[in-house]
Design a protein that fits this description.
Layout lengths: L1 E9 L5 E10 L4 E5 L6 H8 L7 E6 L2 E2 L8 H5 L2 E4 L11 H11 L4 H14 L15 H13 L5 E5 L7 H16 L3 E5 L3 H7 L3 E5 L2 E4 L1
Helix pairs in contact: 3-4, 3-5
Length: about 220
Amino acid sequence: MLRLENVGLRYGDGPEVLKDVTFSMLPGDFFFLTGSSGAGKSSLLKLLFLALKPTRGHLQIFGEDVGSLSHHRLPPIRRRIGVVFQEFRLLDHLSTYDNVALPLRVAGKAETSYRRDVMDLLDWVGLAEKSSSLPPVLSGGEKQRAAIARAVIAKPQLLLADEPTGNVDPVLAKRLLHLFLELNRLGTTMLIATHDRGLVRQAERPVLNLEEGVLSLQ
């Protein structure tokens, strides 16, 4: 699914934020990513989403060497990846429903083929009554749930999530964890960055820890 070998990342002329990162994930793997604030977790996820390229080392995703990919070959790979960033990145002019359905529309699917799936997922994350609401009127937790629903609606091959339960209560966090586990059971490979040790304990999945740019398996 993905492989990193001695990957380093720096911004401009600054110090490296990732240092000799080496790890791989097979299809169907589920890893948590932990580490203190500023350790480089968000940078690593952006690297895996192809928003950044390594400063050095080798990164392969779906068998493709990222360093040798031309710009126009990146979007088809990104469409196979679901991503939840802390900024949410919802489109303010689209309703909650339309934000969640966007990946399916971009893929050219007819609304009649996915409307029920979108509404079922909104119900699962507790947003059925907000389906017509625009993002500016949603709370931070509601925006987070909408971003999660958008990331998983197309059943991506790889899901990258940065603190996906950071703004929800423990009951809803557990519900979202069940959603991630079910998607993983159906074949989606998962890498979830979190500070929530309770979530990690519940899932009983392997943990990668990132500190000062250095990655280790706990």
